[in-house]
Amino acid sequence: MVGLAVMGANLALNLADAGNRVAVYNRTHAVTEEFMRGEAATKDMVGVGSLEELVSLLEPPRVILLMVKAGPAVDELINTLSDHLETGDVIIDGGNSLYTDTERRQTEVEGRGLLYLGMGISGGEEGARHGPSLMPGGSAAAWGRVEPILKGIAARAPDGSPCCDWIGPGGAGHFVKMVHNGIEYGDMQVIAEAYDLMRRGMGMSPAQISGVFGVWNDGRLRSYLVEITRDILATSENGTPMVDLILDAAGQKGTGKWTVISSMEFGEPTTLVAEAVYARIVSSDPERRQKAAEVFPTPTGELGGVGTEDIEQSLYASKIISYAQGFRLMGRASAEHQWDLDPGSIASIWRAGCIIRAAFLEDITAAYLRNPGLEDMTEDGFFSKALLDAENPWRRVVAGAVTAGIPAPAYSSALGYFDSMRSARLPADLIQAQRDYFGAHTFERVDRPRGEFFHHEW
Question: Active site residue: 34, 43, 69, 184, which one?
Answer without folding.
Answer: 184
